[in-house]
Design a protein that fits this description.
Elements: E1 2-10, E2 13-20, H1 29-45, H2 52-55, H3 70-78, H4 106-113, H5 120-138, H6 143-154, H7 160-163, H8 168-184, H9 192-215, H10 224-239, H11 243-258, H12 266-269, H13 273-297, H14 323-328, H15 341-360, H16 368-383, H17 405-424, H18 438-458, H19 463-470, H20 479-489, H21 496-511, H22 518-541, H23 552-555, H24 558-566, H25 570-573, H26 576-581, H27 597-602, H28 614-626
Antiparallel strand pairs: 1-2
């Protein structure tokens, strides 16, 4: 029942709000009155200033506390960005729901905190591993800021009253950093048991990060830390070759960014130059991954360009400067590399990838002239790269003084090759009497060979180097698949023997990788299917006409024989030996009667099946070989 009113003043006008009857001495008196005051303030201020509602709940981030779309942003841009409203008297630990309630959301925080190592020295070591070996290559966090945030987090008082002060948005970022760090902390020379423990610990931290990301909106608004956590979760999935799932996580991270207005440039919001550049870099990283992951999977991307008003990052690095120093810092030309240069160039490449998705892989078929037009854009982007990022014969003199350059070069090159191969892939198997599709044939083999060369050069590194390598776009798409199909399609071509040698070397090196998971092993098996099919066909065609096809053991490579020894049941799923034995068979392989894989491959809406779908790959490779 309502027995009295509360007088509140807003904008010079007194408003009367009802007050519930509260029995003196009740344990919930303070809490009920506090809820009433907070709710009343939120009610009166709702709609007056952007973000006021969520700021009252303890989310101190500029325009990161409210859900708004481009309509609201457009109205505010036409007027002026409002000042950041003052923080409410209510701190983040004073939630509208008691944290002492075991069924409430704060019980989730207890569970998450229980997953952290108890020893601060251990966590410090893991954080430093990430900051010194990975962070500088992929632009995740500002090291000094993150260290100070961790010191503040670890120095908090433990207990019920302090648990509500834990920022789950930052905690999600800490967990995903630890997920990478525990793998870095376990060298390749460690025992298999130790590596298995590290992988299990990494997965626990990964799932803790995803859990914290999901439940943090129940406590706070959005923040840059939450966006960074979503971005790193996506990179973790790329590292483990789970591309399909990364499509979901990058979309979620993008929504968190849009909820803070990151799709509108910081200059429009009146932010400082340093804050603006930070948001531009973060948005550009999201943008490139969103466009390339969607292109790899043949699924819609999440970021619509016509709903965004964002500039590319400048070629300047401001993270170590104050706001005042940042405001007068001069941006460099492309001739001088900074840690922002790759992000600047990558945003342009992401736009081309999105345009390829729209114009060549949309709902309606694209003409080959359109494919040529998009290829010209890719080549034009490549030709404008500065010498230290050149695709052919890059200038390496700056690598020693700028240690990030080799890795940024690798990321840009692999993304370029990925986009070009994807663009031309539907035309790889097409033949023309006028040699019309020669551009696609040459582009596929050129980019696939260059990308495989990058892989072969990078697979001899240690744990940290392999992790940096695996965070690139090439982990969304294996160029070895393309070379394998080229070999299957042309088993007796002069270049096929060299392709098979490189593919065998690639598979051998991957199998020696102690961190190779089941997704990576599936990719190896698909490439080996191409090798064995090509080898069997080539050897069968060299036999006299009255001689029976060579027996399976004679065509089976050593790595296939070893695989069968380790897994005798392999033939129940995919009979590798039968592929070799039937290489010269006149009968088409068993497949769906209405499915012709060469025709499916040429369909612009066709996307590669997952590597783990070995049976589908076997059918596709066998049919392509049969129709050769």
């Amino acid at each position: 029942m309502w027995h009295s009113t509360l007088a509140l003043e807003q904008d010079g006008e007194e408003k009367q709000l009802p007050v519930p009857n509260v029995t003196p001495g009740s344990r919930n008196v303070t809490e009920n009155c506090l809820v009433l005051v907070v709710s009343s303030v939120e009610f009166l201020n709702y709609g007056t200033e952007l973000g006021q509602l969520y700021i009252a709940r303890g989310a101190p981030s500029f325009f990161g506390n409210s859900y708004f779309g481009h309509q609201v942003a457009a109205r505010m841009i036409q007027e002026s960005a409002p000042d950041l409203p003052p923080m409410s008297l209510l701190s983040s630990k004073d939630s509208l729901q008691s944290f002492r309630n075991d069924s409430g959301p704060f019980s989730q925080v207890w569970d998450l905190l229980g997953l952290l190592p108890r020893n601060k020295v251990t966590v410090d070591r893991l954080i430093e591993k990430f900051l010194t070996e990975i962070n500088w290559a992929i632009d995740t966090v500002h090291p000094e800021t993150f260290r100070s945030q961790f010191a503040e987090f670890w120095g908090r008082k433990f207990g019920f009253d302090e648990i509500a002060g834990v920022d789950l948005r930052w905690l999600a970022l800490l967990f995903i950093i630890l997920a990478f760090s525990v793998l870095l902390d376990s060298p390749t020379t460690s025992s298999p048991e130790k590596r298995k423990e590290s992988e299990e610990a990494s997965l626990r931290f990964y799932w803790a990060a995803r859990r914290a990301i999901v439940i943090s909106p129940s406590f706070h608004g959005e923040s840059l830390d939450l966006v960074r956590a979503g971005l790193m979760v996506t990179r973790y999935l790329l590292y483990t070759r789970q591309v399909a799932e990364s499509w979901l996580t990058i979309s979620f991270a993008m929504r968190m960014a849009q909820a803070q207005g990151m799709h509108i440039d910081g200059e429009k919001w009146g932010l400082s130059r340093k804050a603006t550049e930070t948001r531009r870099r973060l948005w550009s990283n999201l943008y490139l991954l969103d466009k390339t992951i969607a292109l790899a999977l043949g699924r819609p991307y999440a970021i619509s360009d016509h709903m965004c008003l964002i500039k590319a990052p400048e070629n300047v690095w401001l993270d170590g400067l104050t706001d005042e120093e940042s405001s007068i810092a001069t941006a460099h030309g492309l001739s001088y590399p900074t840690m922002s240069t790759a992000t600047l160039l990558g945003s342009d490449l992401g736009k081309i990838a999105g345009e390829i998705q729209d114009r060549c892989f949309g709902l309606y078929p694209a003409s080959y002239d359109m494919v040529i037009e998009m290829d010209n854009k890719l080549v034009a982007w490549k030709d404008k790269l500065p010498p230290y990022f050149a695709v052919e014969d890059p200038e390496l003199s700056l690598d020693e003084s700028h240690t990030f350059l080799p890795w940024h070069r690798l990321y840009l090159h692999s993304t370029f090759h990925f986009a070009r191969i994807t663009l031309h892939r539907p035309y790889l198997l097409r033949e023309s009497i006028t040699n019309r599709f020669s551009l696609s044939h040459e582009a596929c083999i050129s980019s696939a060979s260059s990308d495989l060369k990058i892989r072969l050069q990078s697979l001899n590194y240690g744990t940290s180097e392999n992790m940096r390598w695996a965070l690139g776009t090439h982990n969304m798409f294996n160029s070895a698949f393309i070379l394998g199909i080229i070999a299957v399609r042309r088993p007796i071509a002069p270049q096929t023997a060299a392709i098979l040698n490189d593919l065998e070397e690639y598979c051998e090196r991957l199998r020696k990788d102690v961190w190779l998971n089941e997704f990576g092993l599936a990719e190896v098996k698909v490439v080996e299917l191409c090798i064995i099919r090509t080898t069997g066909f080539a050897q069968a065609t060299d036999q006299p006409g009255d001689q029976a096809p060579m027996s399976p053991p004679e065509v089976l490579p050593d790595f296939m024989a070893q695989e069968r020894e380790r897994n005798p049941m392999m033939s129940t799923v995919t009979n590798i030996e039968s592929i070799a034995a039937g290489a010269s068979s006149i009968h088409p392989p068993d497949s769906s009667p209405d499915m012709m894989w060469p025709a499916v491959w040429e369909d612009q809406n066709f996307a590669f099946p997952q590597a783990a779908d070995l049976e589908t790959w076997e059918q596709m490779i066998s049919e392509i070989a049969y129709h050769t």
